[in-house]
Amino acid sequence: MQISQIETIPVRIPLKPDRRMISALGRHDVSDFLLVRVTTDTGLEGWGEATVTPRWSGETCLGAKAMIDQILSPAALGVDPGDIEELDRRLDAVAVGNWFAKAAIEMACWDIQGRALGKPVYELLGGACRPLTIRSRFSLGAYEPERARRRAAELVAAGFTTIKVKVGVDPVRDVERVRIVRETIGPDIALTIDANGGWDVPTAIRCIRELADCQLTIVEQPIPPGDYTGLARVRNETGAKILADESCFDLVHARELIAHQCCDAISLYPGKNGGIRKVREIAQFAEQHGIACSIGSNLEWDLGTAAMAHFVVATPNMQIEVYPGDLLGPDYHEVSIARNPIPIDGPITTLGTAPGLGIEVDREIVERHRIR
Known about the structure:
The chain has 372 residues and is an alpha/beta fold. 39% of the residues lie in helices and 19% in strands. The chain has two domains: 3-118 and 362-368, Enolase-like, N-terminal domain (Enolase-like, domain 1), CATH 3.30.390; 123-350, TIM Barrel, CATH 3.20.20. The protein has helices spanning 61-76, 84-94, 99-117, 121-124, 145-157, 171-185, 201-210, 228-238, 251-259, 276-288, 302-314, 329-332, 363-368; strands spanning 3-14, 21-23, 26-28, 30-40, 45-50, 133-135, 138-140, 162-166, 190-194, 216-220, 242-244, 265-268, 292-295, 344-345, 348-350. The protein is globular. The chain starts with a strand and ends with a helix.
C-alpha cells in the first residue's frame, strides 16, 4: 500500500461567542484550519488536520496548503502509510519546522492504518493505559473582570474542577483577573495560569509571587520560548511548578528544558510536535527523566482532537490525572466538521473505539465552510 494522492482543503469556522479566546497572543475569533485527505493506491483514505495559527507556530492555513501541495506532498507520494518513520524522514528532508502541516499528513496515515486493520489508533500505539473518558481543564481568556467572574462561575456549575486563566497581557490586570477567578471558584477548584510567553522574567517572578495566596497548581509558559536560563530562574525564585508549552516543539527542545531544570511538566500534542510518532518520542524521553507531560491544545476540530485523545489514552506519561490538559477544541466552534462529532460533555471528552481516528468527515459541512 502506498500514498497516491494528498488533498488539502482550507476551512474557516467561527468560534462560539462565549468561547472566543483572548490571550497574550491576541484574539482568536475564527479558526482558519487545513484539512488533509490522504488516499492510497488501494483506495483507502485517511484524514488529518493542521490547526495552524501564525502567532503560535508561524504557520497559516494557506501557507500550510502551499507547503503540502508544493513541497511535502511530492515527498510523501509512494510512501507506505504504515511506515511512519520513513514518512517523517522524507518530510523532514524537504522542509524544517512546519509542525502542524507535517502532523496533518502523519495523522492521516495513522487513520489509514487503523482503518486497514479495523483497529482504533490507540490500539496501534500499544493499547489503552487509561480510560477512554478524559477530563479537561477549561482555558478562560484574558477577559475583563466582570466577564471573568461570570465565566468562572459558569464553568464551576458545568462541572470543571480545574480552570486555567490566561495572563501575560497586562501585569496589573492579570493579577486582578486571577484573584477574581480564585474568589469566584473558591478554594477547592484547581487554578492554573498561562502567560503564553507574555511576561518577561522580572514580571513573571513578581506576578507569581503576588499570586502566591491564590494557590496556583501550575504556571504555564510564563516567559517567551528559548530562554531556558530565564525559565529556570522563574522556577527557582518563585517555587512555582512550571509547565513548558511554547518552549517545546521537538525532542531537542525537550532535552534543553530538562538539562536546564526549568520545568516540572511539558505540554505536548501531535499538531505542535509534528505528529503522533514524534510526540510519543518526546513523552517517553521526558518519562525517562522524571518529567510529567500533559496535553495542550490549539482549539482543534474533531480530527485533531481525536489524534490527541488516542495519544493520551495510549501514553503512560501523559499524566492528565495530575496535570489536566485540554481536549475541548470542537466544543469551542459553531459547527463540527464531523458526521460523528467526538462526544464532549462539559469537562469530559470521550474517545470512541471505531477504526483509525474514528472520525467521519462531513464533506457537505466542509464544502460549505471552505475558504475559496
